[in-house]
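The instructor's notes for this session suggest beginning with a concrete chain rather than abstract definitions. Hand out the sequence below and ask the class to guess, before any prediction is shown, which regions might be ordered.
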Amino acid sequence: MNPLTFLLGIQGLALGLASAASAQPPSRADALRAAVHPVPDARTMQVWLSRVPVTRDFPGDFAATLQGHGSAFEIEMTTAPGCVPCGDLWRKLSTLAARYGWRVRVLDPQAAPTRSGRLGIPWIGHPVAWVRPLADEGRTIPIAVGTDHAPNLARNLYLAAKMLTGVRPAVGVRAMSKFTGIVGVPAATARRR
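After discussion, reveal the predicted structure:
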Protein backbone atom coordinates (compact mmCIF):
# COMPACT_ATOMS: atom_id res chain seq x y z
CA MET A 1 0.00 0.00 0.00
CA ASN A 2 1.43 3.36 -0.90
CA PRO A 3 1.61 6.10 1.77
CA LEU A 4 -1.05 8.34 0.24
CA THR A 5 -3.51 5.45 -0.06
CA PHE A 6 -2.87 4.73 3.61
CA LEU A 7 -3.40 8.41 4.51
CA LEU A 8 -6.59 8.60 2.46
CA GLY A 9 -7.81 5.41 4.09
CA ILE A 10 -7.23 6.76 7.60
CA GLN A 11 -8.84 10.09 6.77
CA GLY A 12 -11.68 8.30 4.99
CA LEU A 13 -12.21 6.26 8.17
CA ALA A 14 -12.39 9.47 10.20
CA LEU A 15 -14.90 10.92 7.76
CA GLY A 16 -16.86 7.69 7.95
CA LEU A 17 -17.03 7.86 11.73
CA ALA A 18 -18.11 11.49 11.56
CA SER A 19 -20.86 10.66 9.10
CA ALA A 20 -21.93 7.43 10.81
CA ALA A 21 -25.25 9.04 11.72
CA SER A 22 -26.12 9.35 8.05
CA ALA A 23 -24.78 5.82 7.40
CA GLN A 24 -23.27 6.88 4.07
CA PRO A 25 -19.61 6.04 3.62
CA PRO A 26 -17.45 8.94 2.45
CA SER A 27 -16.60 9.06 -1.20
CA ARG A 28 -13.01 9.02 -2.45
CA ALA A 29 -13.48 12.71 -3.36
CA ASP A 30 -14.47 13.47 0.27
CA ALA A 31 -11.39 11.66 1.53
CA LEU A 32 -9.17 13.48 -0.95
CA ARG A 33 -10.60 16.87 0.08
CA ALA A 34 -9.94 16.00 3.73
CA ALA A 35 -6.32 15.15 2.91
CA VAL A 36 -5.51 18.28 0.88
CA HIS A 37 -5.00 21.71 2.42
CA PRO A 38 -4.49 24.36 -0.28
CA VAL A 39 -2.77 27.46 1.11
CA PRO A 40 -2.47 30.84 -0.62
CA ASP A 41 0.09 32.45 1.73
CA ALA A 42 2.81 31.76 4.31
CA ARG A 43 0.57 32.56 7.29
CA THR A 44 -2.06 29.99 6.28
CA MET A 45 0.70 27.45 5.60
CA GLN A 46 2.14 27.98 9.10
CA VAL A 47 -1.30 27.53 10.67
CA TRP A 48 -1.64 24.14 8.96
CA LEU A 49 1.95 23.17 9.81
CA SER A 50 1.33 23.98 13.48
CA ARG A 51 -1.15 21.07 13.53
CA VAL A 52 1.37 18.56 12.20
CA PRO A 53 3.27 16.46 14.79
CA VAL A 54 7.06 16.70 14.58
CA THR A 55 9.22 13.56 14.56
CA ARG A 56 11.30 13.47 17.75
CA ASP A 57 12.81 9.97 17.82
CA PHE A 58 15.30 8.74 15.26
CA PRO A 59 17.03 5.36 14.87
CA GLY A 60 20.68 5.05 15.91
CA ASP A 61 21.84 4.66 12.30
CA PHE A 62 19.89 7.72 11.09
CA ALA A 63 22.78 10.12 10.27
CA ALA A 64 25.06 7.36 9.00
CA THR A 65 22.33 6.07 6.66
CA LEU A 66 21.57 9.50 5.23
CA GLN A 67 25.24 10.39 4.80
CA GLY A 68 26.11 6.98 3.42
CA HIS A 69 23.39 6.99 0.76
CA GLY A 70 23.55 10.61 -0.33
CA SER A 71 25.68 9.89 -3.36
CA ALA A 72 23.37 7.11 -4.57
CA PHE A 73 19.99 8.89 -4.36
CA GLU A 74 18.33 12.02 -5.62
CA ILE A 75 15.36 13.99 -4.30
CA GLU A 76 13.01 15.19 -7.01
CA MET A 77 10.19 17.61 -6.34
CA THR A 78 7.50 19.44 -8.22
CA THR A 79 6.94 23.15 -8.02
CA ALA A 80 4.79 25.85 -9.55
CA PRO A 81 5.10 29.64 -9.84
CA GLY A 82 3.86 31.42 -6.72
CA CYS A 83 3.49 28.17 -4.74
CA VAL A 84 4.30 29.07 -1.12
CA PRO A 85 4.59 25.43 0.14
CA CYS A 86 6.89 24.67 -2.82
CA GLY A 87 9.37 27.31 -1.68
CA ASP A 88 9.13 26.06 1.89
CA LEU A 89 9.71 22.43 0.88
CA TRP A 90 12.59 23.44 -1.42
CA ARG A 91 14.37 25.31 1.40
CA LYS A 92 13.98 22.41 3.84
CA LEU A 93 15.05 19.74 1.35
CA SER A 94 18.03 21.85 0.21
CA THR A 95 19.20 22.20 3.82
CA LEU A 96 18.87 18.45 4.41
CA ALA A 97 20.58 17.69 1.09
CA ALA A 98 23.54 19.92 1.97
CA ARG A 99 23.83 18.35 5.43
CA TYR A 100 23.78 14.74 4.20
CA GLY A 101 25.25 14.99 0.69
CA TRP A 102 22.07 14.38 -1.31
CA ARG A 103 20.98 16.16 -4.49
CA VAL A 104 17.68 17.98 -4.97
CA ARG A 105 16.24 18.84 -8.34
CA VAL A 106 12.96 20.04 -9.77
CA LEU A 107 11.00 17.42 -11.66
CA ASP A 108 9.67 18.27 -15.10
CA PRO A 109 6.07 19.54 -14.58
CA GLN A 110 4.70 17.16 -17.23
CA ALA A 111 6.37 14.16 -15.59
CA ALA A 112 4.87 14.70 -12.14
CA PRO A 113 1.23 13.72 -12.81
CA THR A 114 2.38 10.76 -14.88
CA ARG A 115 4.65 9.55 -12.08
CA SER A 116 1.89 10.00 -9.52
CA GLY A 117 -0.51 8.00 -11.67
CA ARG A 118 2.04 5.23 -12.18
CA LEU A 119 2.40 4.97 -8.38
CA GLY A 120 -1.36 5.10 -7.82
CA ILE A 121 -1.25 8.50 -6.13
CA PRO A 122 -3.97 10.90 -7.25
CA TRP A 123 -2.44 14.12 -8.55
CA ILE A 124 -3.36 16.82 -6.04
CA GLY A 125 -0.98 19.64 -6.87
CA HIS A 126 2.38 21.02 -5.84
CA PRO A 127 4.66 20.25 -4.14
CA VAL A 128 5.28 16.52 -4.19
CA ALA A 129 8.73 15.08 -3.47
CA TRP A 130 10.18 11.67 -4.32
CA VAL A 131 13.44 9.86 -3.69
CA ARG A 132 14.95 7.70 -6.39
CA PRO A 133 18.23 5.90 -6.97
CA LEU A 134 20.42 7.76 -9.47
CA ALA A 135 20.91 4.51 -11.35
CA ASP A 136 17.20 3.68 -11.72
CA GLU A 137 14.65 6.31 -12.76
CA GLY A 138 11.85 3.76 -12.47
CA ARG A 139 12.16 3.20 -8.72
CA THR A 140 10.72 6.11 -6.76
CA ILE A 141 9.30 6.58 -3.30
CA PRO A 142 7.13 9.58 -2.41
CA ILE A 143 8.45 11.32 0.70
CA ALA A 144 6.18 14.38 0.82
CA VAL A 145 2.82 15.43 -0.53
CA GLY A 146 2.83 19.08 0.39
CA THR A 147 5.37 20.69 2.66
CA ASP A 148 6.23 19.37 6.12
CA HIS A 149 8.52 19.96 9.11
CA ALA A 150 12.22 19.35 8.41
CA PRO A 151 12.51 16.48 10.95
CA ASN A 152 9.58 14.68 9.30
CA LEU A 153 11.17 15.13 5.88
CA ALA A 154 14.51 13.83 7.19
CA ARG A 155 12.78 10.76 8.64
CA ASN A 156 11.06 10.12 5.31
CA LEU A 157 14.41 10.44 3.47
CA TYR A 158 15.87 7.88 5.87
CA LEU A 159 12.95 5.48 5.35
CA ALA A 160 13.08 5.90 1.56
CA ALA A 161 16.80 5.05 1.60
CA LYS A 162 16.04 2.00 3.74
CA MET A 163 13.21 0.83 1.46
CA LEU A 164 15.31 1.33 -1.67
CA THR A 165 18.14 -0.72 -0.14
CA GLY A 166 16.19 -3.70 1.11
CA VAL A 167 13.82 -2.92 3.99
CA ARG A 168 10.39 -4.32 3.22
CA PRO A 169 8.19 -1.49 1.93
CA ALA A 170 5.37 -2.34 4.35
CA VAL A 171 7.71 -1.73 7.29
CA GLY A 172 8.90 1.59 5.89
CA VAL A 173 5.43 2.80 4.96
CA ARG A 174 4.12 2.09 8.47
CA ALA A 175 6.96 4.15 9.94
CA MET A 176 6.81 7.00 7.41
CA SER A 177 5.45 10.32 8.63
CA LYS A 178 1.99 11.03 7.29
CA PHE A 179 1.92 13.39 4.35
CA THR A 180 0.56 16.80 5.30
CA GLY A 181 -1.20 17.63 2.03
CA ILE A 182 -0.28 21.31 2.55
CA VAL A 183 -0.15 22.34 -1.10
CA GLY A 184 -0.15 25.56 -3.06
CA VAL A 185 -3.24 27.22 -4.43
CA PRO A 186 -3.20 27.05 -8.25
CA ALA A 187 -2.18 30.39 -9.73
CA ALA A 188 -5.55 30.91 -11.48
CA THR A 189 -7.43 30.36 -8.18
CA ALA A 190 -5.07 32.64 -6.26
CA ARG A 191 -5.63 35.49 -8.75
CA ARG A 192 -9.43 35.25 -8.44
CA ARG A 193 -9.38 35.73 -4.66
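Then share the key points. Strands lie at 37-39, 73-77, 103-106, 128-133, 141-145, 182-184. Residues 145 and 179 are 5 Å apart (CA to CA).
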